[in-house]
Amino acid sequence: MKTQKDDHALLFPVVELFESVQGEGANAGLLVSFLRLGGCNLSCEWCDTDSSVFKMMDVKTILEKLSAFRVRRLILTGGEPLIHPTLETLLSSLKEAGYWIALETNGLINPAPPLRRFLDYISTSPKAQATGYHEDQMIRQADEVRIVVDGDVFDFCKRMREKITAKNYFLSPCCRNGNMNVAETMDLLKRLNVDLHENPWRLSLQLHKLIGVR
Ligand code: SF4
Fold this sequence. Notes:
By secondary structure, this protein is α/β, with parallel strands linked by helices. The protein has a single domain (about 5-210), classed as TIM Barrel. About 25% of the residues lie in helices and about 25% in strands. The strands form two sheets. A nine-stranded mixed beta sheet has the order 3-1-2-4-5-6-7-8-11. The protein has a two-stranded antiparallel sheet with strand order 9-10. The longest helix has 12 residues, at about 180-195. The radius of gyration is 17 Å and the shape is globular. It binds iron/sulfur cluster (SF4). The site of iron/sulfur cluster (SF4) has 12 residues, from loops.
């Protein structure tokens, strides 16, 4: 029979663990701990995370390191956390330790009910430029959808809104050659919200970058 000791010995690729402020989406401004796992099923051009550099850590070590932070709110991010087949064990241990857990996912994998029962918040950021994936297998329900304005994503936003039921929909500008495409993002917000009277698309900025923290 599997014991808690066995669960705590499972290894996960940890890119970084740190305490900061959530910078994006509906939870912006919340003090949180971040647990970033390595590995991703996409390779976006503008990705600002090298999720290929990580240290393997067991669940016990992850819990010990997290306990050094005072907050009990955790953002589980990546990379893509849902690619890890034993994630349920990590989530269960985090929940047992009293954490509120928010998942950040690119949405390519629909989290199964056994995982969802440990997740207090799901933020998904589908990528318009990711080709060759099956939209039918994507996540269908989340707390927020956040789409990066990387080119003309008008049709993609409309399609994702039809496919993914969420409480909040956000657009995030992206940085090209050192400039944020804010004007393009504002224009898209206007176009998307023209006939939308409830739950409009909103702007999400990277608050942590604006205030100069990690
Ligand atoms: S899905 Fe996210 S973590 Fe993965 S490559 Fe794209 S931006 Fe980076």
